[in-house]
Amino acid sequence: MGLGAWLAAGREITLLLPKPSPGRPARSLRWALVYGVTYAVASLSCTIGPFLALTTTALRSSSAVGVITTFLAYALGMGLVVGVVTVAVALARDSVAARLRRAMPYVTRAGGGLLVLAGLYVAYYGWFELRVFAGGSADDPVVGAATRVQAELVRLVESVGPGWTALVLGVLVAGVGALAWLRSRRGGRRGSEAPPR
Q: Which of 4, 46, 105, 133 could tie 116 with a disulfide, CB 3.0–4.6 Å?
């Protein structure tokens, strides 16, 4: 909650992490490697919780094939997300990057607000669990509502199925890539048609 309040107030957090500067996005293997390492280090704090929850559950309740399938599905999902971001960044024009940089303070504040809400819920849930372990009632309107929403989301994803989910994500990656490519071509054409100064 403290971290969320700090970010919501418009402040930044600087960490002593390696910050390789690959320079301007280029279509090179070196740039893709450096970008991937940087993205992995930055996103580790966000993804380690769901990753550990998913993999430990799979290790306890699945066979070896089930565990490998779970790891592959997780890798595919993360790869699709990183693929969308990488393609968009690699093909974006400087003006798009400048607009994204201007939007970052608002994104940071919104993320801070979400962190405050998540922290409040986690603290409340901890208090709820302590109360239940002490012999109190397990009926709670806040936890019950959150559990119902979670169950509905799980039911929705299961009803769609993994095949359709993968297809939608694949179409999303292709669509973002095609849109970014078209915009870069249009911007390049405009630049080449500009009269020399």
A: 4
Separation between Cα atoms, residue 32 and residue 22, nearest integer Å: 9
User: Each residue of 140-171: pLDDT tens digit?
Assistant: 999 899 889 988 988 887 888 777 877 887 78
Alpha-carbon separation of residue 110 from 9, 10, 42, 48, 100 (angstroms): 10, 10, 18, 21, 15
> 118 pLDDT exceeds 50?
yes
d(CA 39, CA 67): 25
Whose CA is closest to 16, among 41, 40, 51, 52? 41
Integer-rounded Cα radius of gyration of the chain = 22
- Report the pLDDT value the prediction gives residue 22, as an integer from 0 to 100: 47
**Tokens read off for 70:** 């779970």
For the entire predicted model, the pTM comes to 0.52
The residue with tokens 């929705």 is 156
